[in-house]
Amino acid sequence: EEGGGGSNALMCDDIHLVFDPRNTESLNKNRPKITEESLALKIFVPEEECCLGPACWLWDYLRRSGAGGFFLPLSGGADSASVAGIVAVMCILVTKASREDPEGDVAKDCRRVCRQDQGNSLWVPSSPQEMANFVLHTTFMGTENSSNVTNSRAQRLGDAIGSYHLSIKIDLMVKSVLQVFQITTGYMPRFASRGGTMNEDLALQNIQARLRMVMAYLMAQLLPWVRGRSGFLLVLGSANVDEGLRGYMTKYDCSSADLNPIGAISKGDLKRMLVFLSKEYPGFEVLGEIANAPPTAELRPIDAATATAEAGHSQTDEEDMGMSYEELGYFGRLRKIARCGPVSMFRKLLVTWSHLAPSEVAAKVKRFFFYYSVNRHKMTTITPAYHAEGYSPDDNRFDLRQFLYNTRWTRQFAVIDDIVAQHPETDNDKDKND
Q1: Residue 266 and residue 289: Cα distance in Å, rounded?
Q2: Which of 89, 92, 356, 404 is within CB 3.0–4.6 Å of 360 for a Cys-Cys bond?
Q3: Which of 56, 83, 64 is nearest to 72 (CA)?
Q4: How far is CA 179 from the centre of its chain?
Q5: What is the pLDDT of residues 211-226, one digit of tens each?
Q6: Three-class SS of 357-395
């Protein structure tokens, strides 16, 4: 009570110091020397920030969670490859710090996470690949609709990083679920290319995606046991910011996970990051190949007549979405950073996309806002992500007002139509040039 705080005063226990604060020599003994080099400011390029920031975030979460590592469904595409690349950078950073100071905190955490902390051993990983084999578990979950091209990329990337990699087929799971549905209802859905409706087609695509999520959590729980180790794995998601913005994802598929290191990074930035990694780190050349491949979900049957060698499949993301990832990048920045609604976005893009007819710009803006609003329900279950950019999608887990959107945007679209009608000669000129 000496401080006069009465009954509401904060009570503090005595603090016992392991050093004498009056002895300046003991204070400075273990403090690293400050040099001009250590004070030099280093500004990372954006591609490098996309690697280093999420890598440190993942390590901090992993070391505090008590988990024995990560599980990542590795499809051979740019998104899951980006997540794998970020974990690889994490392993590079942790291995370097552990080898420089085997008795330091990073090394102690590394031994604990890798389950190498028994006894008085000062074990540290001999290479980032050795650490990755302990902490990163990847699996290619293919179906009859998957291509050999993406399977090969996933395998080669797993080998380059050093992950514990498996390649499996989940067709048996898909067929079992469909058989249960057929027994229950007497109907068997078909893909649109085989005479089915669009609802049937989407249902068949979604069941493949959702079963991958189920398999991912089964693997995350049991792979440590399979490898004779204790603990569990954290499941990593790989949905980029553009997919969240457009809603181009299956609810409760592999976008649903424990953590998503790329949830606030656009497809364009991710591809640039992959190219950077392929040049910066020897052995990661496959990342450059993945960056240049057309994105594909591989959920529909392959059409040999339209499949390309680069994609390995006839189904592409941009064709499914009705817009390119580059266009989505514009939409996302204008919507979030510039705070544009349909009309103001249309006005700005009339200038930016002056090579397009106003009616074409209007169609693109309308298409984006329709899908943006109709898919907001998917943001209520979004996986926690590393916040990297100002253009990240809204998190609506605690704000459901987005569901009040009129997906037809009646007033806004009418204003856009009026503006287009004021430029008939421009529209006609563009058509003639085409």
Answers
A1: 18
A2: 356
A3: 83
A4: 33
A5: 999 999 999 999 999 9
A6: CHHHHHHHHHHHHHHHHHCHHHHHHCCCECCCCCCCCCC
